[in-house]
Amino acid sequence: MDHARLSRSQRKPLFQQVYDHIWNRIQRAEWTEHNKLPSVRMLAEELNVNRLTVFKAYQQLKEEKKIYVKYKSGYYVHPGTQMPFKDLDVPIVSSYVQKSHLSEIHQVPATYQFSHALIDPNLMPNRYFSEYVKEIFDLYPTVLSTYSTIQGDEELRESLALYFADKHRFHLTHDDILITSGSQQAIDLIARMLIEPADTVLLERPTYSAAIDIFQQHGARIVSVDIHPYGYDLNQVEQLMKQHKPRFFYLNPTFHNPTGYIVPAEQRKQLVELAEQYRCFLIEDDPFRDIYFEQEPPLPLFSYSTEGYVIYIRSFSKYVAPGLRIAAVCSHSSLRKHLFTVKSLADNGTPLLNQKMFLHYFKSKRLQQHILKLQTALSVRKSIMESELSRTNWTWDSPAGGLNLWVELPKTIVMEMLLVKCLEQSISFVPGPICDPSKQLTSWIRLSYSYINEKQLSIGMKKLIHLAEQLDS
Ligand SMILES: Cc1ncc(COP(=O)(O)O)c(C=O)c1O
């Protein structure tokens, strides 16, 4: 049994941990619909907690209609509460439409893959990496026989520090950088480090959907900030900071996922000032910066930071190698020590081989050549998608970089129906509500133009539009 997982030192209240524990077991189908749950006494003994704690968890599950009570008999699992995908007889489409997390959507195979905000593997530098493996072992024969330092390989951090200083005017040394296993891990580590029970965090609406899941899982209360083609309404941001005293504002201001919007330079400086005034950290997630089609985007918010209120996350997954899982976190303040602690608890350091492989590529001239080629290839794919969409009355703002179009469907098309029909034809996209902390934005979809080749893209878009026309009432 699992009671070791309940921790009195954890920041989550004990009854909430018991609640999660029961709910997990229901989700894993250990108890299925109409099954009787253990009595309060039994579960309290099993988990080594007070009966009142179990009672409180049961009461909350009951209020949320996940379980029900039979008079003088006990608690039972409510029907229809379990995840749908363990039943193989359920058609994939019906389970797909109930999926509410990006990772679940990505598991659905599709020929016309518009849901992946990843670059076509055929455009990635695979050949160079296969050459590098041998070279790395020649250079560092013990690379697999040791851990990386928790903070990350020093040679890599030195290279990154020089690059950030030169390119983005960051004032930092390699000691200010932590290497993480992708930016998703960085987001999770920062959430672990900063979020206390009942803390409020600000998130753009729409936003990167995994960030919503992570912050919610850490118990944060989420308040949304609207993002527009011109950036934010800074009065709204200030009002929210004043009213809610948020712990941090997580943002993706450069070729924002999913909209592609860019927060203009003048707002960046003001945002940092607001953050300092209201003592609200800004978590700047910046994975798409180099995927621009016309001009380089404005400097990161971190470049304006003097008082340590900006934490900068730079992933290299998108255009170097998602499989290497390399991202850098830059922070100035005393937070750094805590960040290293959570990283050490998570995995004792990102694999050294991956860091050395990345470093090799990062220092070579090939990276810049690769980025230039990618910018052209992706701009062509974006034009193809937009040219197909131009036959419709759907609306979107053409992004100047990034991997996605954020498209509003006319009200006459029911997005969920379109999703079902598309899936039947092996076409996938990301439904808007997944990117919305309040699960609205039901007329919006995210279409990624980066993952499939030009020909497939054109065929897939024609099919998608045709299906939508059939549904349009
Ligand atoms: C805004 C944003 N942040 C983070 C990530 C995760 O990237 P990584 O592969 O570095 O974990 C993604 C991936 O799509 C993203 O869009």
Short account of what is shown:
The chain is an alpha/beta fold and 473 residues long. It contains 16 helices and 14 strands. The chain has helices at 14-27, 40-47, 51-63, 92-97, 102-106, 126-139, 154-168, 182-194, 209-217, 234-244, 265-278, 335-347, 352-363, 366-389, 415-424, 454-471, and strands at 67-70, 74-77, 112-113, 177-180, 200-205, 221-226, 248-251, 281-285, 310-315, 327-330, 404-408, 427-428, 430-431, 444-448.
Structure description:
- It is built from 16 helices and 14 strands.
- It is of the alpha/beta class and 473 residues long.
- Strands 4-10-9-8-7-5-6 form a 7-stranded mixed β-sheet, sandwiched between helices. Strands 11-14-13 form a 3-stranded antiparallel β-sheet, with helices on one face. Strands 1-2 form a two-stranded antiparallel sheet.
- Helix 8 (182-194) packs parallel to helix 9 (209-217).
- The longest helix has 24 residues, at 366-389.
- Bound molecules: pyridoxal-5'-phosphate.
- Pyridoxal-5'-phosphate is lined by residues 117, 182-184, 208, 252, 257, 285, 287, 315, 317, 322, 327.
List low-confidence stretches: 84-96
Strand % is 5-15%
Note the overall shape. Answer: globular
Main sheet attributes: strand count, strand direction, barrel closure: 7 strands, mixed
Q: Whole-Å distance between the termini?
A: 54 Å
**What pattern of helices and strands is seen along the backbone?**
HHHEEHHEHHEHEHEHEHEEEHHHEHEEEH
Mean pLDDT: 91
Instruction: Tell me the number of strands.
Output: 14
